């Protein structure tokens, strides 16, 4: 249980808020690279800031504030040039660093120096692993953590993304919640199948023990379920949660990117043996009538996250033994916010380029993963 004040502190992501300042210490993916063609402009909202992502005429991505500083036309209605982006209203143009380099009428009628004093907010963009990444925090910027999955050779990459109308924290907390798998994914699917006259798709199982270990990037969660040996990798290794919001498995990562306090961009990034093909597709959470979908493992998770409300009311919750990982995570969140307030780097911020690329130990083809994969419930073709 959290106080109303702490719940706000941990969930708010806008500029100047404690949580927002914390998120501004990490690189976040914002789009699949292939979804931003040369000369394309896409409106983006990230950590409560309205921005445009574009690929200039030279093929380089830029990310700048959406509002033109002249008289506020959205730059999404402008066009790109070799050096940057130009506003459609009166032609002011800005390079990828946000510096104004052209003000047509001012340049004609004045001394041509006004533009030197006009700079808009611009953020760095890097393309790694088929994703465009950005960092909204103070300089010097940290290293972009290049998790091994991003650079693994000999694989195809599938990028699935969903904009979910809920706060990032309830999604992150789900990753520290092993027991939900037994109910949300297995028992629920079996109940539905039975009611529809189908064979239950998976053998039910029961969690006997769950445990959690803090490591340098976050928390490992481990589980032992009935019938599995004590030396199963679910129990001896588990799989990592990377602070502040990433689920990491051997061949699949999920990045949860706060758009604002009540929206999150959710990426499911998976690799399979292949020749370097990258695809990007939207993974729906509702049907044409707006009804929540509940067919795949990920959609069951979406229902759980959205069903807690836009921002889960943690002041009302009754945490039990199964929630120990979530409580550890909240302590980590508290410490990380404090670190930022003390002018220090929070957990997982990397400054040393030699740390990249980063390989983290994973449970691999554990009994749990194998059970879900073989259980007839697909995560849109992916593991849970
Ligand atoms: S509003 Fe953008 S140039 Fe005038
Ligand atoms: Fe789940």
Question: Strand tally, please?
Answer: 19
Under CATH, the topology of the largest domain is which? Naphthalene 1,2-dioxygenase Alpha Subunit, Chain A, domain 1
Q: Please state the second-level CATH architecture of the largest domain.
A: Alpha-Beta Complex
Round the mean pLDDT to the nearest integer and report it: 94
Low-confidence stretches: 379-384
What sequence of helices (H) and strands (E) makes up the elements?
Answer: HHEEEEEEEEHEEEHEHHEEHEEEEEHHH
Describe the oligomeric state of these chains in a short phrase: single chain
How many DSSP helices? 10
- Binned, the helix content reads 10-25%
Give the distinct bound molecules.
FE2/S2 (inorganic) cluster, fe (ii) ion
Q: Which structural class fits the helix and strand makeup?
A: alpha+beta
Q: Could you give a short description of this structure?
A:
The chain has 384 residues and is of the alpha+beta class. It has ten helices and 19 strands.
Can you describe this structure?
This protein is of the alpha+beta class. It has 2 domains: 28-134, Rieske Iron-sulfur Protein (3-layer Sandwich), CATH 2.102.10.10; 148-373, Naphthalene 1,2-dioxygenase Alpha Subunit, Chain A, domain 1. The protein has 10 helices and 19 strands. The strands form 4 sheets. The protein has an 8-stranded mixed sheet with strand order 13-14-15-16-17-18-12-19. A 4-stranded antiparallel sheet has the order 2-3-4-9, with no helix packed on it. The radius of gyration is 22 Å and the shape is elongated. Mean pLDDT is 94; it is low at 379-384. The chain binds FE2/S2 (inorganic) cluster and fe (ii) ion. Residues 180-181, 184-185, 301, 384 line the site of fe (ii) ion.
């Amino acid at each position: 249980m959290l106080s109303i004040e702490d719940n706000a502190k941990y969930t708010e992501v806008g500029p100047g808020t404690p949580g927002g300042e914390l998120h501004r210490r990490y690189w976040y993916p914002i789009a699949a690279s292939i979804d931003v063609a040369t000369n394309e402009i896409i409106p983006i909202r990230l950590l409560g800031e309205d921005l445009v992502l574009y690929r200039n005429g030279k093929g380089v991505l830029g990310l700048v504030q959406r509002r033109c500083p002249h008289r506020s036309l959205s730059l999404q209605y402008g066009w790109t040039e070799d050096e940057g982006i130009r506003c459609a209203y009166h032609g002011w143009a800005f390079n990828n660093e946000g510096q104004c380099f052209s003000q047509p009428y001012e340049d004609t009628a004045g001394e041509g120096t006004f533009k030197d004093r006009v700079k808009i907010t611009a953020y760095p963009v890097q393309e790694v692993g088929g994703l465009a990444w950005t960092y909204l925090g103070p300089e010097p910027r940290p290293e972009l953590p290049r998790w091994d999955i991003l650079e693994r050779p000999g694989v195809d990459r599938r990028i699935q993304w969903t904009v979910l109308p809920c706060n990032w924290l309830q999604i992150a907390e789900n990753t520290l919640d092993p027991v939900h798998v037994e109910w949300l994914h297995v028992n629920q699917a079996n109940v539905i199948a039975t009611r529809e006259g189908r064979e239950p798709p998976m053998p039910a199982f029961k969690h006997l023990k769950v445990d959690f270990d803090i490591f340098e990037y976050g928390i490992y969660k481990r589980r032992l379920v009935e019938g599995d040996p004590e030396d199963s990798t679910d129990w001896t290794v588990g799989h990592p949660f990377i602070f502040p919001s990433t689920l990491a498995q051997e061949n699949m990562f999920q990045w949860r990117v706060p758009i604002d306090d009540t929206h999150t961009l959710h990426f499911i990034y998976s690799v399979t043996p292949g020749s370097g093909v990258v695809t990007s597709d939207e993974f729906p959470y509702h049907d044409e009538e707006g009804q929540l979908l509940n067919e795949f493992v990920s959609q069951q998770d979406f229902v759980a996250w959205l069903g807690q409300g836009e921002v889960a009311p943690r002041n009302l919750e009754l945490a039990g033994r199964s929630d120990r990982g979530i409580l550890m995570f909240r302590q980590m969140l508290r410490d990380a916010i404090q670190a930022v307030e003390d002018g220090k780097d929070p957990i997982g911020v990397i400054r040393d380029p030699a740390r990249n690329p980063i390989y983290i130990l994973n449970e691999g083809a554990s009994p749990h993963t194998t059970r879900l994969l073989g259980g007839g419930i697909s995560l849109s073709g992916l593991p849970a």
